[in-house]
Amino acid sequence: MKKFITKLMIMSIYVVLGFSLAYQFKTLSARNTTAFAGSRTNDYNILNELEDLKNEKLAIEQRNNDVLEQINRFEQSAANQNYFTEDMKKELDDSRIVLGMTDVEGQGIKIYLNIKPSIFNTSTSYLTDDEITYLLNELYFGGAEAISINDTRITIQSSIKMTKDNSNLLLNNIVIPVNKLITIKAIGDKDLLDKAVNFPSVKEYQALSYYDIKTEKSDLIRLPKYINTYNFDSIEHFNASK
Amino acid sequence: MKLNETSVFVFIAALSLGLLISLNINFNRNPSAAVLSAQQYRDAYNLRQKLRKDITNLNEQYYNNYSKLVKYKDSNSSYQKILKEISDELELNKLILGSTEVVGEGILITLEDGELVFENTIEAQLTNWERLIHDKDIRITITNLRNAGARAISINGIRVINTSSFICAGEFILVDGVKHAAPYYICAIGNKEVLMNYMTGSESHLKFMEYFRQVKVSVDKQDNIRIPAYIGNMNHKHMVKAQG
């Protein structure tokens, strides 16, 4: 009996040891030692900074919205004075919507792009600006009125290119990793947009075939406004009398 | 002291276990609680860059909006002044929206199909495919012009707007549903030097078309390019200003 208890104790010690070794191995693997990992202090600093920056962004957005609300009240009071000004105000509001100067909402679709797991397939290819502009083109052909990628609004002055090392997408100078989930939202006729993306050849275009592409129709999609500033240099209205 | 095999194994196992536990226990709950993997650190770094850029842009927008509000609040501010502000902003918006005819310096790009080979071989078909201009070439050219800072663009005299699409239709390319055939004349207003350098750089798509596919490409700087207003329907049926 005593022998049996001793063996049981040894066995339990080995079980705990095995568990600890496995846990240690898992922790070390997760560190991904081939690439640079920040020191613990750096990690703590960057996480703290992220929190501060998020709060700062929320605060400036709130201040901006307050100012825009006041501007709108002044303009509305002027617009109420006569039909001419009312029309002009309507046209201005409309131009702000189309140019992406306000948050917009409406029916449409969400598209989720996620790289397929490549356990047995070593020839994975990541998407580039070519595939992204191809998808956007198909969506516009399907009648999209406004589009965002990872909540960054696409406008007529948006830049869509690759980073210098060709590894990630650079949208309005914001890095979009191509090995992570990419979410495209488009406002327009949801059925037409869904058809445009799910047309057989669309999902097979170049590197798109390496991605799981899921679409989701929605009755209400909200897109954020374009937060870059428009440039009006080098361009002016045509004046026939000049 | 009697030493047997089991005791030695138990001793080593217990020692290893003690070491592992002590290595993993952390009494200091402060900074070391946050340990990121390289991938998580990269994501955090990218997010930080994005947030910083967002804040810079939002501050710029806030400054512009606040300046406008100050003008409105000006004690001398009158209906006429507000009307002028509305009119001025609307005119600026129309410039880039595409609802008005515009002029400015820029570049003119001419794209023409290369010389075709009239042979009934697979090689000849592939060569001809490369020498033709496709919807992809137009799409990439327009994207590159926007990346280079073009303020207004037209193809064969048709204004390109934010929602314009370019789709292949046999020997034609549909630009917003309207058929166009080669040659394609693409006008772009913007800083002509910047546009020229960007579009004709050694790794540009136009150079690739010209040297590797023998498509006929020419790019010329212009001091005065005129681009017409968009003549299609710019109404939006489904999109409204978000509430709240």
Protein chains sharing the most extensive interface? A-B, 107 and 102 residues
Query: pLDDT under 50 segments of chain B (min length 5)?
Result: none
Can you tell me the residue ranges of chain A where pLDDT is under 50 for at least 5 consecutive residues? 32-37
Strand content of chain B: 15-25%
**Main sheet summary of chain A:** 5 strands, antiparallel
Q: Note the main sheet of chain B.
A: 5 strands, antiparallel
- Total DSSP E strands of chain A: 9
Q: Indicate the multimeric state.
A: heterodimer
Order of helices and strands of chain B: HHHEHHEEEEEEHHEE
End-to-end C-alpha gap of chain B: 81 Å
Q: Tell me the strand order in the biggest sheet of chain B.
A: 3-2-7-1-8
As a whole number of angstroms, the C-alpha radius of gyration of chain B is 31 Å
Helix tally of chain A equals 5
Helix/strand class of chain A: alpha+beta
What value does the average pLDDT of chain B take?
A: 87
Number of helices of chain B: 7
| Euclidean distance between termini CA atoms of chain A | 110 Å
Total strand segments of chain B: 9
